[in-house]
Amino acid sequence: MDLCHVPATREKGWYLALMAPNVKGPNYAWLDPSRLYCHPQGLQDCVADLLQPFQGDAIDMVAGIDAMGFILGAAAAATLRKGFLAIRKAGHLCVQTVAQPYTDYSGREKVMEVRTDAISPGLRILLVDQWVETGGTMRAAIELVEQLGGVVAGVAAICIENSEGGKWIQERYKCSHCVPPRLQPRFDQHQ
What we know:
Elements: E1 20-21, E2 31-32, H1 34-38, H2 40-51, E3 61-65, H3 69-80, E4 83-89, E5 97-103, E6 109-115, E7 124-132, H4 136-147, E8 151-160, H5 164-172, E9 175-177, H6 184-188
Parallel strand pairs: 3-4, 3-7, 7-8, 8-9
Antiparallel strand pairs: 1-2, 4-6, 5-6
Helix pairs in contact: 2-3
């Protein structure tokens, strides 16, 4: 799809066709949404679709998860006129942090951290990431927010797969993603 072309009819998720499939092998995610971010209308519609279920909800801050969640998270924060908090992989913040170990989608053990002075008790945080595949990364972010007394106001990602971890998150938190129900099985099977 041309990066300037905007379809005459824009159904929810039309911009998913902008994503590129993995050509580098099993150590990489199966789709790359970064091309979607290059398309001005695609990015705007993606963010609008992600935020639509939260209209009228109390959200105090948006937190994006390292690293691709920074793009959608910052765009969502700007749209909502809220502050943005980066939840980082360990070792990148030079201030006091709390840390949470997790296993990412590829099975690698990692640690995520967040600064201790950004989340006060009761602060309502919308967590944003590019993708929730196994749920490990998002669950670590949830645990960090809650450990500091924050409230997870919701979880938003381009896709939340129906994996065990994805289901765990969807059963416990208000969630939003961009994949239409008819396409969800294909995304769950990485087709």
